TrEMBL record:
Record's subunit section: Interacts with COX5B; this interaction may contribute to localize PYROXD2 to the inner face of the inner mitochondrial membrane.
Protein name listed in UniProt: Pyridine nucleotide-disulfide oxidoreductase domain-containing protein 2
Gene: Pyroxd2
SUPFAM superfamilies referenced in this protein's UniProt entry, alphabetically: FAD/NAD(P)-binding domain (SSF51905)
Subcellular location(s) per record: Mitochondrion matrix
Family: Belongs to the carotenoid/retinoid oxidoreductase family.
Amine oxidase domain boundaries: 35-162
A Pfam family annotated for this UniProt entry: Amino_oxidase
InterPro entries, sorted: Amino_oxidase, FAD/NAD-bd_sf
One CC-aspect GO term: mitochondrial matrix
Record keywords: FAD, Flavoprotein
Length: 356
């Protein structure tokens, strides 16, 4: 249990609770859930520019990272097509993947197919079911994809000023504006209570909030004097109590709760808001193809990691369909902006390609 690990190393409850957020981030789990300690490890492993466990902002926003990858691929001769929805994976008479068929009927032929989509979309929607082993299909159907995440993007006309560290008169970003700010994390019991509310189908009355202000480091993201604020919040159930939908009223009611919480830490925040974009679990699934809204394509619990990700006997990026590979977060080692699954999958695919 994460709580036991933190108790061994730390005494301060606010510090323990703040660290605990990375043990439940993106997971429908509590700091008291068995296996939560691994999720914390997953988020602090690795390094950035030689600093172990460090995170960073992408200059120009996360889209700039995609563009950098695209440019590197194009420089190697790759052809990139966007806004071209895939209908299904094309199979030959030998059951090997031979490319994909687009929704407009266009066939794109290839000796190998690598899917960065979730295992659910790749194998339950894009692959002919009769060509897959029944036990494999059942395993993919049973993957826990519950998500507690509602993402809120906010535009503000001034920098938030927190009671604990008020802004200076010139309004310039201070050190705490340039890192992750964790709110409603004074104790791990608060996180557990928020989790419990969500398990009963109710959005948390005091949500866990991770607040980042990327424009404090990258001014080009917003007009002068204005800022963009990214709110990663938990816990919100995928399905509300009584089967109620996440309609506009439910979305705004929850967002108002989040903003009320921020207002208590930074008076004037609500008055500074110019606009907001609310993405509940159902929105994340609909817009980005994340199953259940899960940012990791599936829970990072111990029963869904390592040799069991996405399914036993298929953790090595190959699939039951020869020539079809899984290279996204649903493959080992799971989610996070690190590219490990893609790099590993590419090495396996290249090895197979040389043997064709």
């Amino acid at each position: 249990l994460l709580g036991q690990i933190l108790d061994q190393w730390f005494e301060s409850e606010p510090l323990k609770a703040t660290l605990a957020t990375d043990a439940v981030i993106g997971a429908m789990a509590s700091p008291h859930t068995p296996g939560s300690g691994y999720v914390l490890l997953h988020h602090v492993m690795g390094e950035l520019e030689g600093r172990r466990g460090a995170w960073g902002y992408v200059a120009g926003g996360m889209g700039a990272l995609s563009q950098a990858i695209a440019c590197a691929a194009a420089a190697r001769g790759a052809h990139i097509f966007t806004e071209k929805a895939v209908c299904h994976v094309l199979l030959g008479k030998d059951r090997r993947a031979q490319g994909v068929v687009l929704q407009d009927g266009t066939e794109v032929r290839s000796k190998l197919v690598l899917s960065n989509a979730s295992p659910q979309i790749t194998f339950l929607e894009l692959t002919p079911q009769e060509e897959l082993p029944k036990d494999f299909v059942q395993r993919i159907q049973q993957v826990d994809t519950r998500s507690p995440v509602t993402k809120i993007n906010v535009a503000v006309d001034r920098l938030p000023s927190f009671l604990a560290a008020p802004n200076t008169r010139d309004g310039r970003p201070l050190p705490h504006h340039q890192c992750s700010i964790h709110l409603n994390c004074e104790g791990t019991h608060l996180l557990h209570h928020a989790f419990t509310e969500a398990t009963h189908g109710h959005p948390s009355s005091r949500p866990m909030i991770e607040l980042c202000i990327p424009s404090a480091l990258d001014p080009g993201l917003a007009p002068q004097g204005c800022h963009v604020v990214s709110l990663f919040t938990q816990y919100t159930p995928s399905v509300l109590a009584g089967g109620q939908p996440w309609d506009e009223q439910a979305r705004n009611t929850y967002a108002d709760t989040v903003f009320d919480c921020i207002e208590a830490y930074a008076p004037g925040f609500k008055a500074s808001v110019i606009g907001r974009d609310i993405l509940t679990p159902s929105d994340l699934e609909r817009i980005f193809g994340l199953p259940g809204g899960n940012i990791f394509h599936g829970g990072m619990s111990l029963d869904q990691l390592y040799f069991a990700r996405p399914a036993p006997s298929y953790s090595g990026y190959r699939s039951p369909i020869p020539g079809l590979y899984l290279c996204g977060s649903g493959a080992h080692p799971g989610g996070g902006v690190m590219g490990a699954a893609g790099r590993n999958a590419a090495q396996v695919a290249l090895k197979d390609f040389r043997q064709l």
